Amino acid sequence: MTVTYPEVGATQTGQLPAGYRHIHRRVEVRDLPAVAAGMRAWGIHRGAGLAVRAPGEPTVGLEFRSCVFYT
Length: 71
Prior knowledge:
Order of helices and strands: HHEE
Structural class: alpha+beta
Helix content: 10-25%
Number of helices: 2
Strand content: 5-15%
Protein backbone atom coordinates (compact mmCIF):
# COMPACT_ATOMS: atom_id res chain seq x y z
CA MET A 1 0.00 0.00 0.00
CA THR A 2 1.30 3.46 -0.87
CA VAL A 3 0.53 6.38 1.42
CA THR A 4 0.56 10.03 0.41
CA TYR A 5 1.57 11.74 3.64
CA PRO A 6 5.06 12.06 5.17
CA GLU A 7 4.13 11.29 8.79
CA VAL A 8 3.65 7.53 8.34
CA GLY A 9 3.85 5.89 11.76
CA ALA A 10 3.90 9.20 13.63
CA THR A 11 1.00 8.25 15.92
CA GLN A 12 3.01 5.35 17.34
CA THR A 13 5.21 7.80 19.25
CA GLY A 14 2.33 9.33 21.21
CA GLN A 15 2.87 12.77 19.67
CA LEU A 16 0.46 13.56 16.88
CA PRO A 17 1.79 15.43 13.84
CA ALA A 18 0.85 19.08 13.39
CA GLY A 19 -1.36 20.21 10.54
CA TYR A 20 -4.17 17.69 11.07
CA ARG A 21 -7.45 17.83 12.95
CA HIS A 22 -7.04 15.35 15.81
CA ILE A 23 -10.10 13.94 17.53
CA HIS A 24 -9.95 12.31 20.96
CA ARG A 25 -13.05 10.61 22.31
CA ARG A 26 -13.72 8.10 25.06
CA VAL A 27 -16.97 6.29 25.62
CA GLU A 28 -18.09 3.61 28.02
CA VAL A 29 -19.04 0.42 26.20
CA ARG A 30 -22.13 -1.17 27.70
CA ASP A 31 -23.11 -3.55 24.89
CA LEU A 32 -19.94 -5.16 23.58
CA PRO A 33 -21.72 -7.50 21.13
CA ALA A 34 -23.45 -4.50 19.51
CA VAL A 35 -20.14 -2.64 19.24
CA ALA A 36 -18.46 -5.67 17.67
CA ALA A 37 -21.31 -6.02 15.16
CA GLY A 38 -21.00 -2.34 14.27
CA MET A 39 -17.26 -2.70 13.74
CA ARG A 40 -17.83 -5.68 11.43
CA ALA A 41 -20.18 -3.52 9.35
CA TRP A 42 -17.73 -0.57 9.04
CA GLY A 43 -19.76 1.33 11.66
CA ILE A 44 -16.77 3.18 13.11
CA HIS A 45 -15.75 4.52 9.71
CA ARG A 46 -19.27 5.45 8.67
CA GLY A 47 -19.98 6.99 12.07
CA ALA A 48 -16.97 9.23 11.53
CA GLY A 49 -18.49 10.46 8.27
CA LEU A 50 -16.48 8.30 5.90
CA ALA A 51 -17.85 6.53 2.88
CA VAL A 52 -16.34 3.03 2.70
CA ARG A 53 -15.73 1.00 -0.43
CA ALA A 54 -14.67 -2.53 0.53
CA PRO A 55 -15.19 -6.07 -0.76
CA GLY A 56 -16.60 -7.29 2.56
CA GLU A 57 -16.34 -7.10 6.32
CA PRO A 58 -13.13 -5.78 7.92
CA THR A 59 -10.47 -8.49 8.22
CA VAL A 60 -6.73 -8.49 8.80
CA GLY A 61 -4.98 -7.57 5.56
CA LEU A 62 -8.09 -6.30 3.78
CA GLU A 63 -7.45 -3.30 1.55
CA PHE A 64 -10.23 -0.74 1.33
CA ARG A 65 -10.81 2.87 0.41
CA SER A 66 -12.63 5.50 2.41
CA CYS A 67 -13.58 9.06 1.55
CA VAL A 68 -14.69 12.02 3.63
CA PHE A 69 -17.55 14.10 2.29
CA TYR A 70 -17.71 17.65 3.61
CA THR A 71 -21.01 19.48 3.40
